[in-house]
Design goal:
Helix content: over 70%
Keywords: Membrane, Transmembrane, Transmembrane helix
Oligomer: single chain
Number of domains: 1
Organism: Flavobacterium tagetis
Protein name: DoxX-like family protein
Order of helices and strands: HHHHHHH
Distance between the termini: 36 Å
Number of helices: 7
Length: about 150
């Protein structure tokens, strides 16, 4: 849930700052900034809580390396969303990345994996299952903030 607080909080803050300074609403830009900040937030979690996240994907080889690499990918994507020349490509790759993460979230929900304590006691199925619609929200968010807006202007 912290990721949603970061995403929506930064989005509202950026919209407010833009409106106060320009009297316009730059939804796509605010959306990309919010997603970039959220990605940095989640990437930090990949480095700080790598052991717990590796347990979630323990069925794969090199689980710790995968967690580290996904954190690096999130940092690169955060930068890419903010650069005008790379925002469209980054958006497409980020949507693919989020789709590829869905199986890990489904696995965590089915097995009730708790990332904070790296055990199988979990916070309950409702917490873990909400991660799946969150991934769908992130996909839609990236689409509307980096891809759809650009298609309309072409």
């Amino acid at each position: 849930m912290e990721t949603l607080i970061v995403l929506f909080g930064v989005f509202i803050a950026i919209l407010l700052i833009i409106w106060l300074t320009t009297k316009r609403f730059e939804l796509a830009f605010a959306g990309r900034v919010a997603m970039a900040v959220m990605l940095v937030f989640t990437a930090i979690g990949h480095f700080v809580f790598a052991k717990g996240m590796a347990m979630m994907i323990s069925f794969l080889p090199w689980a710790n390396a995968i967690v580290f690499i996904t954190g690096v990918i999130e940092l690169i994507a955060a930068i890419g969303l903010l650069l005008p020349k790379t925002k469209v490509l980054t958006g497409k790759l980020l949507i693919l990345f989020f789709i590829l993460l869905l199986p890990a979230n489904i696995y965590a929900a089915i097995h009730n994996v708790n990332l904070q304590t790296a055990d199988y006691t979990g916070k309950g199925l409702s917490y873990l299952w909400i991660r799946i619609p969150m991934q769908l929200l992130f996909i839609a968010w990236v689409y509307f903030s980096s891809l759809r807006i650009n298609q309309k202007s072409k």
